[in-house]
Amino acid sequence: MTSGRPLALVVEDSADQSDLLRRYLDREGFDVFAAVDAESAIAAFPTITPVVAVIDLLLPGISGEECARLVQERYPDCFLIVSSVLDVADYPDADAALPKPIVGADLRRLLREVPR
């Protein structure tokens, strides 16, 4: 991405949720790389450098929890937000939790913590 805007990685298998996150993140000043599954996100690792990642925990194939772990390994400075319909108590370790349904104000609040 050459826009000069920071990059957000979204890993979400629901098209509606992905579009919603893309709109919210764009409004907050981020370019967005959206992947429909963990495998697509991992395949893009050589070409992206996200400053924030929003990862759905319930993904087909490689789990969102495993994807989150791989993002943390590859991009240790990336602000990791996990999202799910699951109980927040069941979320893996991350910088922040974003329970579904996603609310724009909640995401904006979390994004204030992202270094740009």
Automatic annotation (TrEMBL):
One of its GO terms (biological process) is phosphorelay signal transduction system. It comes from the Bacteria. The keyword Phosphoprotein applies. Keywords: Phosphoprotein. Residues 7-115 form the Response regulatory domain. InterPro entries: Bact_response_regulator (IPR050595), CheY-like_superfamily (IPR011006), Sig_transdc_resp-reg_receiver (IPR001789). Pfam families: Response_reg. The modification 4-aspartylphosphate is found at residue 56. SMART domains: REC. This is Response regulator receiver domain-containing protein. It comes from Microbacterium hydrocarbonoxydans.
